[in-house]
Amino acid sequence: MGGEVTDFLTALRSYLLGQQAVTDLCDRRIYVLAMPQAELEAGPHKVVVLLASGGEMKSRRTITEAKVDVVCYGETDFEAAAMERPVAEALKTLSRETYEGVLLHNATVASGPFQARDPETFWPAMRRQVILRADERGV
Fold it and tell me: Is the dihedral of CA 75, 71, 18, 108 positive or negative?
């Protein structure tokens, strides 16, 4: 998954895959930018999708600050909310760890969570936006 946007998103995915409270609920179903067709065909279930949502900027120190939408799906609205809680906790505790060659400094909650049906699939979802700080210089 090359490219500047996917580098920090791929690193964030790797971080979340290492969080047992998250993977206990969704297994390894954490995706960058889009959900695979096979997941869509399976119908609503617990999945996490990481989306670049703009606001990316580079400081003079080459630290990326980017807005990331974290979308947690579930079989029902209640299950989507249950999926969102451990993901939110993992994001709050992220502190200077390297994944996929990217140093993830931290993630700050910018908004959410808020309940939203996916406009294309109409799956139950909880959405949260975070500001992710990362250094992609090849740590």
Answer: negative
